[in-house]
């Protein structure tokens, strides 16, 4: 018999060799029908794979991120089976699940796969899905795996096998007549896949290397119910309307220039005003909580990032070293702010009385993303992290977590993200060798996160085995206006960097101790956050955040002088705006201003100038009456207060 520990801590005994699916059936047939895969000791397995020893178990369904990933990875294999049937001689690269669906990189072998082919590929996939063929896991020796793919003539799979370590287990998966090199896991059989939509065809270099063969990448998404697909397609149409790249151009927020370089955003005046207001909001909130704002260089010696471990992690994704006239001297564009903040802490001795030390920065960092992976503001090569690092004693971790939780929740609510879940990522108790630091430190930090989240009343999920190698973390998963899920805001506990940089403080016992570092980013990067904010609001930002809150529209250009006077009076009330005194009809001006999502239009003509008033229109709500500028300012303030109360 083996002991199976469930997420709620309950322990049950089952015969050795029992599968997660059998365990699910022992609980409820209804539950078993929903199970797609299972997390065993923090690792995602097939629900049909035998469990031979004591283990922790989490059953994964469509409602779980890892459950969806299993479903979509299985769908990639189903698509590959359909492609092999329709395009004989095709070869396969990699076919992972991604954030919203899956893709497979394929070499059609001289054939062409276009958008026109997608409907018949979908049809073939559904035909194969209805056969309900099981996904069968087949452990195989390295030699046999090489022989299999040599016979098949698939050089891409052969390369993947050659790159694996000699002692790493190799597995094949088979469904129907299709066999693929794969670690898994997969859903029990193809019948789980009921609805499919292939969405795009693009080019992709093998292994992301621009010097290698260009493959054909086919994107798709799939669902366990047709209803889910219809809802997704509706959401997709709405997402196109809200695309931040489209709205960012229309609203004149940002631009890109090929001469400057791809993936390097340029903020235009309106976008910069939006960005500044976000930063000012967070700056004020941080000051309330005792953060000290710092600024660090955009570059650092290569040795700095070797010490921190960032060169090992981001070296391939970094811009290559900058060489100076001095022989052997190398600098890197900084990939993270953490090493610089460690140096700030280390520049003078500290006592336990100095802690916690909270260091914050709006620091721009750089990573060389492949050109094919760049996507508007959400995937760029230069971005500003809303970053902070808290250096504290182990005993202070819980209190600092509560402080950061309060800040993060304030930020999310202020930005309109009211529906979110916090994922508590803990280490895998069955694989302690994967992590650094003492068991005592891990126990303190994990308990601090769990207790702090409970005290804060957060809706949480726990993920065993999802901790960073240096410590546990908390990620905030938010839902936007059209139901998409985003990871916004993260808090991480780190014993690694203080060790690497030999950070110390003198304790109450007059001895030296190693502090703990908490990483904290409530926005993540400004660029990605603003891209999500644009799409969540469809460009209709909260009134306090709008770069231009008012447009003064003249009936004719004769009233340009009065328009300027109105703007000056508004400025005294801290209301931002511009005037439109072009020789255009007032109807056209109103329509164009509506499209820019400017919240208020103040229309002025002969009567308004004579009476010292403005005719007020609210974006999307029409006429609000005629009033003096002072009366409008009071009306505007009430609208601001109403928005804040709604938050």
3D structure, described in words:
- α3 packs across α4, α8 (244-250) crosses α16 (526-537) and α13 crosses α14.
- The chain has 20 helices and 35 strands.
- It is globular.
- The protein is α+β, with helices and mostly antiparallel strands and 647 residues long.
- β26 (473-479) and β27 form a beta hairpin.
- It has an eight-stranded mixed sheet with strand order 18-22-23-30-27-26-24-25, with helices on both faces. The chain has a five-stranded mixed sheet with strand order 2-1-7-4-5.
- Helices cover 36% and strands 27% of the residues.
- The chain has five domains: 2-61, Ubiquitin-like (UB roll), CATH 3.10.20; 66-233, Threonyl-tRNA Synthetase, Chain A, domain 2; 254-296 and 337-537, BirA Bifunctional Protein, domain 2 (2-Layer Sandwich); 297-334, no CATH class; 550-646, Anticodon-binding domain (Rossmann fold, 3-Layer(aba) Sandwich).
